[in-house]
């Protein structure tokens, strides 16, 4: 079942696509600079189509099955979004075209900025960051710029809950901050006493995810944010879990100052096998001028006859560009389309049913799986994938066995504060039938773990390939089809 | 609207959970902030949203409506139909990051092939699974160099002929580190050669960054320069246009340590600036220091060949605050686009496209150089972009060209104080001879008026 | 689990062999078994560098985890076992012998008193489970 690589399928002299002959006189080529050999494969168009079709058959995807990956929000990716992003009027515009030729693009970006402001309660938005992690970097650099502008150089720390996603401390470190971890309490909330003790004038800010990575709403979120503000710090919201809050609560109302939004989670833009994402950043008015530019604004108001004229403005104390051009416009079109078909009521329904689905699944498997923080969850929840009376079986084995039942495993080993964690996020686009089937399988696997553990330990049995030797991959480090000499160290 | 629940299903589920209503699932949300009324437009059906967006899109003028000679980091190339046919497979675009390799071999093998193609094209030993774009890839080269020298070398020398947006992003990223200097890109001397940078390369220099072809389209042999940079103990990063590498010597061959750049020319539509593709490849000494995802080859228990994400312990989800970069996503689907594009064109096709760009650009440059008032330096070798010295402001000339259905070049006065009235013009395989002649006619008419 | 009696041990699982004023350091058998197959090793200091106690001086990576090697004592780095950068497997197979990592000329030998002896370290490992 191994599909050959394009190099193995190559045959010298094959051409996949032909181009016209030059219709201009040939210019001289600088011979000392011209490349002598180009070691690329040669395939026909049918070769290429078949090869990638075969590869596609080896993949699991949302279109083929349930994908309960916690913190990733694997909801259905609507096909209309794909059509709209491909409209020639959008797809063939160059980012540096004069603004009068791209008023359609600018209108869409402006409206999307306005929608995101309305949904989150913030006052200004940049659409530039390419992904959530880049949004976080933008946000933390804004915190840094803000304190610097006040002449405050004492603040060297960023507080991060111990349940946080790895990007939070990584972002803080690459922005020049020291990371201080805040423990969680027995209910899964940020430990308020620990926060109170740690919050002083050396703290630049707190990075908080709400609902947190346990899928739980921070029960004292307003107080947490107040404590940080009182100490002179800012609160950065990691928006990865926004799918639980649409029309339910606005992060700005809860006291957040800055947050990033993942269009590829909450707003249905597709994950693409690992990207592209899009990570707009929203801020309260006080921080608007620190945003990366350019930002779309109205240059001239419209009236009954003429639409507004849109253009760009450059924030006056900007932290600087974080990527070239304007951001992932193609993903903006998709998110805009998604919000347009939902409206306010539709978005609220998204969060209500995301939370309903998660709680339903939790109710069905609670008891068989240990739930370390057992209360009404939001859009996701975490269980332990291990039993004291089923020795030798780990969360990894449960995950691998799920694949034999045609389910993608949930997120494994995260958050770190739960041992052998399985983080399950069904999303709102799944039916009760799918959830029931998944719950039934989870219960069956728990039974197998006790009675036939080797089924789990050697799983998966029915996928195109079995468990792979990751140690060998890391040691031998073969990263190319043609192995260059001495890549292996 | 994509939530499938019926009323009776909802009621059944609430019963199993043991709560009376959906609202009761949100009691932990502070009452005064719960259920805000969002002021958004009324929802549209699919049919209505399609009409609305079609209308918005049609307000624009595109590179299909206008004859495009605009480049400056994003290029108008032909994307063969087969590329999108693959990209629209739900198995590829609705899949997640391949953390469970047993059900993700499609994605993993495609990325492995992408890594191979990029390594070959750039002449490097290994490539990662991509960064967000050319600008962030360049910034990541600086981050790699910083960590390679453990923060002991604090100077970063950057040529002024590196894309202005890339230099800006590099500075934004380096702001997170203490006491660094990013120097060398004096925009008052835009046409400085790379050799002009050498006096700045001292024992405290971590990295030198140059672009090839540079922002002005010029190409030169960097082999001797690379040697000098290495003599000072610094690393060399070369920012590339991958299409140019089908025609010209690779950075690997010339001695670069890192090759980074923008992969948009490889089968990715212009799409008003994104999503694009950040290329990042290095010599073997730096492979383990690369940020971003890496796919490696291995076998399963039965000895079947397969692919996995490897060296993941470097990444943020494990190293956390000790990771050298926070990057999580790559540009998965865009890397797939580039892989399909390069597979379709192959050795012959890619070279053919590069040559078409080269010859058409040179013809255009020669023709424009003959128009009174316009001047092009034809002496230095270039790929498919060149600088035109104009008799008036670029803005005025472009307005005139736009009235004639032409999208003119980039105004270099935006970034280089002494280059007002200088336009950066790009020519690709999409420009026919007729297009070029229309451009030249328009410029001739302009210079008469 | 191997805990040689003549060495001293840090809470972060490094071992120290004292030879006069020089501390030779490495990671313990417990550490390498927790990490399992090591796939990467990198020094974070150069000979001649001054290090302070608990400072991270090297990085170890296995497939699932990354760990820092922390200096158990302060002083000046006088020698690195460079072969470990390529032959990191030896950290798993011979953690106390061929996998010695570096030699530090101690600035304050009294810091050794804060380290555990073999018996205390063995008990500490049992407590954590292995």
UniProtKB/TrEMBL annotation, chain C:
Record keywords: Lipoyl
Listed GO biological process terms: glycine decarboxylation via glycine cleavage system; protein lipoylation
Residue ranges occupied by any Lipoyl-binding domain in the UniProt entry: 22-105
Domain of life: Bacteria
SUPFAM superfamilies cross-referenced by the UniProt entry: Single hybrid motif
Gene3D superfamilies in alphabetical order: 2.40.50.100
Cofactor requirement: (R)-lipoate
One Pfam family recorded for the sequence: GCV_H
N6-lipoyllysine found at: 64
Cofactor: binding details: Binds 1 lipoyl cofactor covalently.
InterPro entries in UniProt: 2-oxoA_DH_lipoyl-BS, Biotin_lipoyl, GCV_H, GCV_H/Fam206, GCV_H_sub, Single_hybrid_motif
Entry GO CC: cytosol; glycine cleavage complex
PROSITE patterns per UniProt: BIOTINYL_LIPOYL, LIPOYL
NCBIfam families for the chain: gcvH (TIGR00527), PRK01202.1 (NF002270)
Function: The glycine cleavage system catalyzes the degradation of glycine. The H protein shuttles the methylamine group of glycine from the P protein to the T protein.
Family of this protein: Belongs to the GcvH family.
Summary of subunit composition and partner proteins: The glycine cleavage system is composed of four proteins: P, T, L and H.
PANTHER family according to UniProt: GLYCINE CLEAVAGE SYSTEM H PROTEIN (PTHR11715), GLYCINE CLEAVAGE SYSTEM H PROTEIN-RELATED (PTHR11715:SF3)
Protein name: Glycine cleavage system H protein
